[in-house]
# Entry
Amino acid sequence: MEFQSKMKEVVSQFSVLFLTDDVEWLANEYIRHGAVPEGYPEDAYHIAIAVINEVDYLLSWNFKHIVRRKTRDIVKMVNTLNRFRQIEI
# Structure
């Protein structure tokens, strides 16, 4: 029980990052350029939310589409073309 209450305390301090028009547009750009397959828009949203909110790192251990080399390269290209800061995936 003590561990659960400590985890709840830690998580309660996290900021909630919301879906905005900018996030939706950027996620669609990632899909349009082939960074993320059309069938996995949630992956594109994860990346776009992190980029729009200027998160430095996006960690993933179970989203194969996010951690692929191709995805990381295309995300960098889309971010550069649209003057967004880079994120380390």
